[in-house]
Write a structure and sequence with these properties.
The protein is of the alpha/beta class. The protein folds into 2 domains: about 5-280, Putative sugar-binding, N-terminal domain (Rossmann fold); about 290-475, Molybdenum Cofactor Biosythetic Enzyme, Chain A, CATH 3.40.980.20. It has 16 helices and 19 strands. It has helices spanning about 10-15, 25-35, 65-70, 90-110, 130-140, 195-205, 220, 225-230, 250-265, 275-280, 315-325, 335-340, 340-360, 380-400, 410-420, 465-475, and strands at about 5, 40-45, 55-60, 75-80, 115-120, 150, 160-165, 165-170, 175, 215, 240-245, 270, 305-310, 330-335, 365-370, 405-410, 425-435, 440, 455. The strands form 2 sheets. Strands 10-11-6-12-5-2-4-3-17-18-19-16-13-15-14 form a 15-stranded mixed beta sheet, sandwiched between helices. Strand 17 and strand 18 form a beta hairpin. Helix 3 (about 65-70) packs across helix 4 (about 90-110), helix 11 (about 315-325) runs parallel beside helix 16 and helix 14 packs across helix 15 (about 410-420). It is globular and about 65 Å long. The termini are far apart. InterPro entries: 4-carb_acid_sugar_kinase_N, 4-carb_acid_sugar_kinase_N_sf, NBD_C, NBD_C_sf.
Amino acid sequence: MSTSTMSFSSLESQLPPEWKASNLREQIKQIHQSGGKKIIVLDDDPTGVQTVHDIDVLTQWDKELLQEALNKPEAVFYILTNTRAYQAAEAERINLEIARNVQAVASETGIDFVFVSRGDSTLRGYYPLEIDTLTDEIRRLTGLEYDGHLIIPAFFEAGRMTYQSTHYIKEGDTLLPVHQTEFAKDKVFGYEHSDLTQWVTEKTNGRIQPEDCVVVTLDQVRRGPDAVEEILLQVKGNVPVIVDCLSYADLDVLSYALLQAENKGKKFIYRTAASFVKTYGGIADQDILPKEKLVAKGQESHGGLVVVGSHVQKTTRQLEQLLAGTDIFSLEMDVNKILNPAEQSGETTRLISEVNERLTRGQNVVVFSSRKLVAVESSDGNLNISQTVSESLVKIVNSLNIVPKFIIAKGGITSSDVATKGLGIRKARVIGQAAPGIPVWLTGEEAKFSGIPYIVFPGNVGSDTTLLETVQKIEG
């Protein structure tokens, strides 16, 4: 098992060909239409809808909202938990509450469901906590024992793929093991292994050993659904199942095999990134959204707003390109002032006043947290800093007295807080993507600005110029 970099093109030339069944995705969709099972995706930040379209995302999970979602025709809906932004105890509480509410509503309506716990394609987030919480609570409520939990962090739009159990990021033609990237050094969710069997051991503090994992190899996947189903039918005891996959064709094989195995009584729960949901939900490909879908109708004379909170290096480079390549008005939020109670209010007031004035004049504005990362020793302390910065960015959105012609929020915590606290979104419709891996929501009737496109831009997605290109596309 290699944990060093390798060339993707030279690897591809040695691999067996993809399984060529022409209509697996369509067959998967038909299975859902006839079966009525709901796929409920618990999204630990708002970027997980980056591969899907024409489905709902809920930002709350009261029984009334869940009942409405369970009764809609689509097989898939998302619940934005935003747990990656919270301490572990709060993440656990949210997952418990959702499990209880979903189970209560599902038993009233007689609708079967499966949970997908959507985590990050660069392995950050609360694994195994979230899977453990969901499985334990469903077992307590119903007696159900899961046979396995599948770990599938593939996200092809951003070059995230798994081979020989090792998770890689593809940059150009180079496959880089994910533990060698900046994401592995995350102050809260860092890790040392790219081999997912070893990563599981690391994250479970040795409770699950590498040999306890079931590995589905690329050779097995490319032999087709029957070969994969045979393996899945043997899985029991809620063991981790790790699957090699380099393409959507590979995931279509897996998804079809899973549905066949579930049809024969197997029970699985999922910890995955964004690509899996698209294939398991039988969601067809859709073109990138045109410019017209990215602008709020009737607000064309106003400026657009970009809010940047993420601190990953990729975001900083994208911000630099945006500032260099457009005449967008730039407003830097001084994080040291925001963290100082004596200066916080003055700094926020300055930004709010400037943003409203510029948008009214028809100028595009980017508000960004100062780029020098303020960090402390503890992971809880770093989460608190992130939350304080995000709350200040939210106050700016909340204080808008004019509808921007577009809103882009950059980074997971930022885009979630802007959606729920800044724009007051309770339920939104995912209409597609502004660029590969960059989802667009249409805000609900209850939102501060209803029926407008809201572009959720992950911190770790796109090339250095993708943010610039997105704004340029909107401007035509």
